[in-house]
Design goal:
alpha+beta; Triger factor/SurA peptide-binding fold; Chitinase A, domain 3; 2 domains; 4-stranded antiparallel sheet; 10 helices
Length: about 325
């Protein structure tokens, strides 16, 4: 799926706040053809390698954080994908300029005030230009695309009816517990002592069920002890299997037998159960409308970019021209 400008992939601030350092660049919007200092041109507008590198650094960091070995081949692949996105960015910016989209200087001033220029090897003027580009594109998308998209209640209802499984709220229980810790590294004597303690607490809890919270506060060894062992509501799959099975098998007000998990020994009291249900349409109508609006916005941006690429003159340094007749991918 083609990245759109609602994504953070090309957000200037993600680059600047990650303290990406790029060498000072030549003015990026000079007339030029690809050279050693120019990564690509779009309709004669040159984008420098320094700008590409500014956006490239957080992408490389992200790949490393995901455990990918940063080989020359991977770096080249990421760089090429980034150039493709930056071409789209420039095409949208040029389209916004043709639509006479304007931006108040106060908006740029406000964003500049949030940026620490130390460690950024770009001039203040260059950073202002990058901010202007990002915000002009956003304004164009909001004013010229999103503003013309209407999502009716009927549209939202149709999506809801066709995707009911997405609105299922699973069965949940509200429970508290008392934990006595015991791990695999405990000696038999330590395990026996922990078991003796939890058995004694179970007797006390069942004799004084209304005081379960106070018992948990005084004796539980889990992080929920200060809350009286309160775990709130949780659904299936959120707790380790033995704990989940015991909790969901209880009736409201019941206290479990001792339950052993990898964390130790537990006593569980279940307070309330909410059966699984379909979330009512009225509760999700606005969310659905926002989702559909974003989806249609992205589709229109993708179609617009396909059209702009066909008409554009794009030159990439040391690379073959991009395929402007590529298959549309916004629905994949």
């Amino acid at each position: 799926m083609r990245s759109t400008f609602f994504s953070t992939a090309l957000t200037l601030f993600s680059c600047l706040f990650l303290a990406c350092s790029a060498p000072a660049e030549q003015p990026e919007r000079q007339q030029a053809t690809p050279s050693d200092d120019v990564a690509f041109t779009v309709n004669g507008k040159a984008i420098s390698n320094e700008i590409v590198d500014l956006y490239l650094q957080p992408e490389l960091q992200r790949a490393q954080m995901m455990g990918q070995p940063l080989t020359p081949e991977l770096e080249a692949q990421i760089r090429q994908q980034l150039i493709d996105q930056l071409i789209d960015r420039e095409l949208l910016y040029q389209q916004a300029q043709q639509a006479h989209v304007t931006l108040e200087e106060a908006v740029i001033d406000s964003q500049m005030a949030q940026i620490q220029m130390d460690g950024i090897n770009l001039s203040e003027e260059q950073v202002r230009e990058l901010i202007k580009t990002d915000f002009v594109i956003r304004k164009y998308i909001e004013d010229e695309i999103q503003a013309n998209i209407e999502i009716s209640e009927e549209d939202a209802r149709k999506f809801y009816d066709e995707n009911l499984s997405e609105f299922e709220q699973s069965e949940q229980v509200k429970a508290s517990h008392i934990l006595v810790r015991s791990g695999q590294d405990d000696t038999p004597e330590q395990k026996a002592a922990a078991r003796h303690k939890i058995d004694s607490l179970l007797v006390v809890a069942r004799a004084n069920p209304d005081s379960f919270a106070e018992i948990a506060k005084a004796s539980s060894e889990g992080p929920s002890a200060p809350r009286g062992g309160d775990l709130g509501f949780f659904g299936r799959g959120q707790m380790v299997p033995p704990f989940e099975q015991a909790a969901f098998a209880l009736k409201p007000g019941e206290i479990s037998d001792v339950v052993e998990t990898q964390f130790g020994y537990h006593i569980i009291k279940m307070f309330e159960k909410q059966e699984g249900e379909i979330v009512p349409f009225d509760s999700v109508k606005t969310d659905i409308q926002n989702y559909l609006r974003d989806q249609r916005t992205n589709e229109q941006i993708s179609a617009l970019l396909d059209s702009l690429r066909v008409k554009a003159t794009i030159e990439i340094a040391n690379a073959s021209p991009p395929d402007t007749s590529r298959q549309k991918d916004h629905d994949q």
